[in-house]
Amino acid sequence: MDLVFGEEFQVANYLMSIAGGHIVSRFFSSLYQLGILEQFQDDQPKHYNDIAKIVGCDPECLHSLLRFFLPYRLFNEVSLGTYTKTSTTKLFMKGGPLYSLMDCLTSDKHYMLHKNILETLRTGQNKGPEALGCKTNNFYESFSDPVWEKGFTSCMDTFNDIALPNILASVDFSPYKTIVDVGGSHGKLLRQILGKYPSIQKGINFDLPEVNKGKVNEKRLEFVSGNFFETIPRGDCIIMKTILHNWKDEDAKAILQVCSNALEDGGHLYIFDSIVDPHIINPHAIWLDISMRHIFGSKERSLEEMETLIQGKFKIHKVIKEVNMGCMVLTKI
Ligand SMILES: C[S@@+](CC[C@H](N)C(=O)[O-])C[C@H]1O[C@@H](n2cnc3c(N)ncnc32)[C@H](O)[C@@H]1O
C-alpha cells in the first residue's frame, strides 16, 4: 500500500505519536526523577554539562532530552547547549501548579498500573489493582504505600485547583448548615466553600483513615475517618466529587444508600462526575471511561444510567450545566 499524504498523513502521524506516547512519557518521567526542572529555580542560564554533573547523568543524553522538549517551550535554548526556564517550566517544576499532577502521571507506579490494560479489555474485569500488587480488585488497597498515596492524593488536589473556581462560581451552597464531603480527600473543596459562606456552620471531610491521617481539625472543618460503605456523618448537604465513577453499579448503589441514610430531610446530594452524552464524542471523557474500567471496574455514566442507579432512593432535582466537570443535584424520595 502507498504511503498516505495530506490530511490523512497528519492523522497517521498523530496516531503514531499516540502509539509512542509511553516513550515520551518516560522522557518526562526522567526529567522529574532527575529533578532537572528544579535546576532552573533561579533565573540563571544553565549549560547541560553543569546540570548533568549536579544531577548525575550522561551529558549528551541530557542535551538530547532537553532539546526534545524545546518545541513545547518547556525550556529555552539561549545558545547551543545553554538553557533557561520559560513560563511553562514554572508550571511544572516543584511548587508549580501542575507539578503534582505530572509527578503522579509520570511516576513508575502509574506506568505499572497501565501495563496490563489488555487484560482488562479481554476480561472486562479491572486488572489495574493487580498490576500494583493489590490482593483484591480494590484500587484503594494500593494506598498502603504512603508515597503512592501521597502522590495520588496530591494529583487529585491539582485537579481540584483546576475545577474548584468553576464549582464555586456555579453552585450556591448558601442554603446549607452542615456539608459533608464524602471521600473529600485533602479537604480543599470544603475549605473553600466554608471560606465563601460564613453562614455554613460545619464542614465534614470524610475519608479513609490513611488519607485523613495527620490532618488536624480547623475552625468549622472536621476530618472524620471511616468507610462510606458503612456509615457517614449526617448533613443537609452531601457532596461526592469524582467518587461514584470509581465504583461498579452495585457498589455505587450501596454508597448511595448510605448517603440517603445520612442526608437530612429536605437536603441535597451533589454528585460531581462527568455526565456522558452517548451521541457526542468527547475524547477526554472516553479516556476517563477506559481508565475507570481498568482501575476500578467502573465507568463514566450517562444521565439515564445515573437515573437507574438512584432509583428508589433519590430523584434528580437539577443538573447544573455551568459546572464543567458535570453536576447533578439529587433529593431524597
Ligand atoms: C478519586 S478520589 C476523589 C477525591 C476528592 N473528592 C476529589 O474530587 O478530589 C476518591 C476518594 O475516595 C476515598 N475513598 C475510597 N474508598 C473509600 C471508602 N470506602 N470510604 C471513604 N472514603 C473512601 C479515597 O481515599 C479518595 O480520597
TrEMBL record:
The keyword Cell inner membrane does not apply. The active site is at residue 245. Pfam families: Dimerisation, Methyltransf_2. PROSITE patterns: SAM_OMT_II. Keywords: Methyltransferase, S-adenosyl-L-methionine, Transferase. Coiled coil: none annotated. Residues 16-94 form the O-methyltransferase dimerisation domain. SUPFAM superfamilies: S-adenosyl-L-methionine-dependent methyltransferases (SSF53335), Winged helix' DNA-binding domain (SSF46785). One of its GO terms (biological process) is methylation. Residues 121-312 form the O-methyltransferase C-terminal domain. InterPro entries: COMT-like (IPR016461), COMT_C (IPR001077), COMT_dimerisation (IPR012967), SAM-dependent_MTases_sf (IPR029063), WH-like_DNA-bd_sf (IPR036388), WH_DNA-bd_sf (IPR036390). GO terms for molecular function: O-methyltransferase activity; protein dimerization activity. PANTHER family: O-METHYLTRANSFERASE. This is O-methyltransferase family 2 protein. It comes from Tieghemostelium lacteum (Slime mold).
